């Protein structure tokens, strides 16, 4: 394959702290035991932001000669890229937003991606790690008003669903709300585009377009350059925790297995009795054509986790103003609650997240097979294992490591109560039929098998 | 008719100088000989920005009870609006961009709209007046790089033409270029929307979306709130001069009579022998469907003004990147030229504009009838009268006063050489057929009659 | 005399609007009827800021070859100085603060110093002129808290008095107050130096050091470079009005005839019955050694203007904290009053200034002789003529024109009631004895003669 | 003793990162093993900034009831102080600069003062620790020009020496140079005051007044509130290293034992053969009256460390302009060198500092007795031990722990070559005679004894 590529040298963009000589060493190519490979692959994902593919392996193979180097200079460092995807440049100059993301990648890889960086022996330590990584990325600001809406949903949605996410983003922006997503295409890009226009109209000049990602997903969901605060969390659990600690309101657009994973993660936390009093605005929404999709999700939740879980969210179909007004009101309630409890506006300390939810889940064949998908446990525990099941399916679909495992050992095997496995089967089948498992146009080969 | 309206009190937005007691008096409703009525009608146009209509009279009748008042306070003034169009507000709060535009209206009405404000006895004085009005509006900044692209074209264009203007705006913005338009809908809004997205990606945070208008046109081409630098020039000639003095590059999208007027105005100036050495990037562009339209314009220019005129512009069809690259290069040339000649980057002093072009043209029946539409004169003089002819047609189509005149006295009569009148007839007919004279969907009753 | 001089080219400093070609012409040397000479002499005064002399003629003679030129460039103008006093430069580069003042001079000369610029046929027009000149100089800011303390007093005071003014300035600055003076040495510099230190400690980073001057006095009271907002009013009456409209609190340090003039100006206004309800904090202060001086002033006021006048001020000796606390409290009262009356925080519109006070007083021999220094008139009218008498004495002491008049026609003759002339004689004598008429070390030849 | 004290609650000043719940716990009073006591004593030192004493124990005893608490709120933290010295407040409100310093103390105590924070097993690690502490304090900025002048000298110097330090600071500031000191009174305050005035004149609005201190010295050399970048390093060695890594030029004013310590530290590093090529501008300066003092220092250096050491500095007497011009030139050379070597402008990475110099020296009786004060070693090793000797004397004079040790065990005993001990004796005697060991007016009881 013949790609257009560019070589270039770029100066730091954004607020970047100086690096020590020790830190610089960790990113150098020829340094043993360093972070260079991780840096290179995340950097490539950022540079390929227009080049959507959800095959994690493909990108690295496509740009085999891509290289990135730190240059030390009297005023700080520069980055030199070689063989970089041409679409990151205009007339030979890197798009500023992409350059900024590149330096964010560098910053985060250095700070939080060494195994020993953050001990996470208990829930407090894990939360502390998430906080410090976000703070180091300047995401935790001292004097904000609650206004961050997390938007979740598929990266490979249909045009009309995409347009709807733009309209929702526009209405959120009109109401002074900022956007946080997983920072890829589709439902992760639409709200940002919409909000960009309304922020301009509202002179909301410091609009935040937050993207939270992790090394395993970044290649498939490459951050679009509107994102002006990107954080690469070290693993998927820290990424999910970052979303719930940083967001003030939550919207779920149509998506596939990844979206289901996110919904189950949220419900697992919200069903924890300790979190009952905490306000947490959560809306599932899409255009008219997505009505059935959300009906299926709602049914699945009702059957598996019960009515209590269903009370934690609201479904609004095809009414972007209603969605935005609901978020605005919900966030006002969050603000009042935090003020009363002296909980920080910029980080949801009070929300209890079980240590179980924070521990990395390695979606290999054994772990997938051992998930407890039955009702002999509290709802929030079941939600946790359901979340893991969907997480594994996402890995098998789009993550480099997951794809290789499936190639080698065949599909993951999942087993559990029929009362859970049957609705799950139905839900996954509908995702496949609706082409929500892969980018439209590609044929889907399931990476899982339900053992009923 | 039953409109949703809102009453509200708004604080100054944007950089606004303090007002003297004398200035405040001029805007008060009950002050004799004041500027109140002008202020009220322009303010209403700004507030009705979503409410596109091109009937200048309609708006004032639709919002009969609309009122606006200055309130004097210890920290400066506030504005109180009563009976204002509801679409200017979100959840009862005025959209910030609209509030900013409202204060711009106030600023400009005060500064440049009293007859005696600026004597314009000769070309120098007229240019000085334009400069001072723009400077007072903070449009003339001390330390800029040339990057302002003026985009002209119809306010009532088709969806696909509109989408194309967005794409062009996006590509301009990617190259660090700012947008200046007549600030209504259609071709005046699309480039700004497109550039807003690419400016975000380029972190071009101080992107300028300049709108230049005048009291006679503002109601029909209400500024959209993305506009962050609005200037209400006192008359159409000063508005046109402002465009050519402030812009560094010029793009013409498809439009109707107004667009033809603008093209003829430009050519009238550029054909002046004194302006021959001055670089002036000018591109006519549209999607594939506009190819024929520009062919007709090009033919008309060739026949009436000659080949020299045709050399002053370039026609590019359906290639937004080519358009943007041409502008970027053209503006680089402008920069080099101004640097060499020590002409200001922020105001094109060297361009000679004949005093003829600066004097307000009152498009009444007599003046229209007396236009010299024949070839017994230098091309730039003919261009000037052709420009006036189209200006009168625009007035008869959409301006309050023009519409009333036509209602009273019947269509304007235009006469001249057959070699001019026939192509003109053909051009105007094609505008009518292509529904470029009025907002699509309304039937067009010609306001002119060509006497061949 | 052999002065060290420097040639240099300087770029604009501070917020400077672009100039039109017409404006630039007015400042060019070879342009007839222009403002060049005025510009040159004021510019020289600014450049000679360390070079204190109070002989208005001397400076121009000392730097005969000094020249200043505008250079037009693509990014705006530059100034070229030739034969400029070397003390304005450090290692060949002009001190930034001085460069800023130079551009302020240019701005003000252009705006307000053409005779026809501002008609002042009545009190409203004169006030409007003062407002617009200050606004053009960005002195009238939209969103301030009242905090400007005007400090008056001699430019040629003793070391211990000077040190005291520094201490007062320090205490004012600690309380968040800004300083406004006539911007020369002595009592006009000390408070600014003191406040600079305390503003640094309070992180009051946008501290304002306002200097108000006029062409006749600027050479003798050259602005020190701490001044970061300089305005050259066109005449002494507008300068005095600017002080009282812009200041929120007023302190008078020991001085000479100029200080007496300022005190009488204030009392003339404050004794106007229309101004009775307006709060106007006014303190006379100095170190212990100045106790007698203020006693003499107080006596003179008591005898000539009566007890009511004495109630308008407070005398505080040798207690800088008490002075600052009194100002802080007084300004709080001013704030409350303006808020209640909806009078602007940035300009004292409500204060009535009689048109008499606004009209330039030409201190020639005839006008001086005709002053009505008797008690057959309201106190505020007498104060006005007493003010004029002292104004004439200042002119005869230090102003170019005044000095020449005295050289030609001998001392001014003043006559009036013995009950006024005798205390006046005593007061002036004490000024002479205390060396308050001239810079210490020079012998004083009286420029006036009291005809009792 | 009866002190005026104030209770107050203060909001964060300066750029302060949010704190995690874990970090907040470390500063709470009732938390075991925490940093509270350290925080309290440093905070008190900052609050007592006007209250100069050089008895480290006195302050804590004087304000026994002083307490400081963190309050957690929705927008971040506040600090509550009880029983704080009244001089930190104006009209009941804490001086902003002091509040800022207080939050700096909090930041640094949290970051670098836990034993385990930074392993320093070798020179690289120790340097890395210094870098990270400074970076965390925002002292290491990404895009600076070299302009930091470190000023050392006594905190208890005479009026005329103090005035001279102000004049030097003024001249440095005129040349765009910033000031870094140990941040107490005397020679550490004068240059900052002088530079504040000239920075104002040069519109150098972001002037840096850097103070580097450590917990053992802060009480005796309380930072004055002009300091706008304060860092509390964890120990004296890191503090000294911070000076040499951050400064671009170095000035030594007259002082006592502490100043001698600093000079010896510098020479110890500069005599290291590895540092020979590195430019390092170093000037000793004072008014005429200090000529003899520097003669004695120079002699002592010549005798003990040799001529090579003497070549590393320049002595300039009573010529502030010469000092400033020398610094300006020297720093230009530093800039050229770093550019050539691609060494950072903001941190002197290339300077080699032996691990010996980085290890904390505990000045107890045994360690002092064991110092090798003889010539059987390279000059830079001898310089290191001489530095430790003076360091111990400073501790015995003004540090809490040192004073207690002397009270208990009598004076430190120092021994070595006569060729060193005799000149040292002479030097120390002259310090005592010139009252440079203690604040003038207090009798000095030597804390050391030279065993010859």
The general outline of chain A is: globular
Number of discrete domains of chain A: 2
Largest sheet of chain A: 7 strands, parallel
Which consecutive residue ranges of chain A, at least 5 long each, have pLDDT under 50? none
Rg of chain A is 21 Å
**How would you classify the helix and strand content of chain A by structural class?**
alpha/beta
Oligomer: homotetramer
Portion of residues within helices of chain A? 40-55%
Spatial strand arrangement across the major sheet of chain A: 9-8-7-6-10-11-12
Number of H/I helices of chain A:
17
Largest chain-chain contact?
Answer: B-C, 31 and 30 residues
The span between the termini of chain A is 43 Å
CATH topology of the largest domain in chain A: Rossmann fold
InterPro entries (chains A, B, C, D): LOG_fam (IPR031100), LOG_family_nucleotidases (IPR052341), PpnN (IPR049788), PpnN-like_sf (IPR037153), PpnN_C (IPR021826), PpnN_N (IPR027820)
Keywords (chains A, B, C, D): Glycosidase, Hydrolase
GO molecular function (chains A, B, C, D): hydrolase activity, acting on glycosyl bonds
Domain Pyrimidine/purine nucleotide 5'-monophosphate nucleosidase C-terminal (chains A, B, C, D): 331-450
Task: Describe this protein with a few key phrases.
452 residues, 14 strands, alpha/beta, MCP/YpsA-like, Rossmann fold, homotetramer, 2 domains, globular
């Amino acid at each position: 394959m013949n790609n257009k590529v560019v070589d270039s040298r770029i100066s730091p963009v954004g607020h970047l702290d100086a690096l020590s000589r020790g830190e610089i060493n960790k990113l150098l190519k020829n340094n043993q035991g360093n972070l260079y490979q991780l840096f290179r692959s995340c950097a490539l994902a950022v540079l390929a932001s227009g080049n959507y593919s959800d095959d994690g392996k493909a990108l690295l193979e496509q740009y085999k000669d891509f290289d990135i180097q730190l240059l030390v200079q009297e005023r700080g460092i520069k980055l030199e890229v070689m063989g970089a995807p041409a679409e990151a440049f205009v007339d030979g100059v890197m798009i500023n937003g992409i350059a900024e993301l590149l330096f964010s990648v560098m910053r985060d890889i250095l700070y939080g991606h060494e195994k020993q960086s953050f001990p996470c022996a208990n829930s407090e330590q894990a939360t502390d790690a998430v906080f410090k990584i976000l703070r180091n990325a300047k995401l935790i600001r001292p004097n904000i008003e609650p206004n961050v809406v997390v938007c979740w949903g598929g990266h490979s949605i249909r045009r009309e669903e995409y347009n709807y996410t733009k309209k929702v983003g526009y209405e959120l922006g009109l109401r002074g709300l900022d956007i946080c997503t997983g920072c890829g295409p589709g439902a992760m890009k639409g709200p940002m585009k919409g909000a960009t226009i309304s922020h301009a109209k509202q002179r909301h000049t410091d609009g935040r377009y937050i993207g939270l990602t992790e090394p395993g997903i970044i290649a498939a969901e490459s951050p679009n350059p509107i994102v002006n605060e990107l954080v690469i969390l070290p693993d998927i659990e820290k990424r999910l925790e970052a979303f719930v600690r940083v967001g003030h309101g939550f919207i779920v657009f149509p998506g596939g297995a990844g979206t289901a994973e996110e919904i189950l993660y949220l419900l697992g936390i919200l069903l924890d009795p300790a979190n009952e009093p905490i306000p947490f605005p959560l809306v599932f929404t899409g255009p008219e054509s997505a009505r059935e999709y959300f009906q299926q999700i709602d049914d699945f939740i009702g059957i598996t986790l019960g009515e209590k879980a269903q009370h934690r969210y609201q479904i609004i179909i095809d009414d972007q103003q209603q969605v935005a007004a609901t978020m605005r009101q919900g966030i006002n309630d969050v603000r009042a609650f935090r003020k009363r409890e002296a909980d920080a506006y910029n980080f949801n300390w009070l929300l209890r997240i079980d240590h179980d939810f924070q521990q990395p889940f390695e979606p290999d064949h054994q772990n997938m097979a051992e998930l407890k998908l039955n009702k002999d446990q509290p709802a929030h525990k079941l939600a946790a294992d359901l979340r893991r099941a969907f997480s594994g399916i996402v890995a098998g679909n789009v993550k480099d490591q997951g794809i290789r495992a499936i190639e080698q050992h065949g599909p993951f095997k999942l087993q559990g109560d029929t009362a859970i496995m049957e609705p799950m089967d139905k839900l996954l089948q509908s995702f496949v039929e609706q082409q929500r498992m892969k980018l439209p146009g590609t044929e889907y080969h399931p990476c899982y098998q339900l053992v009923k």
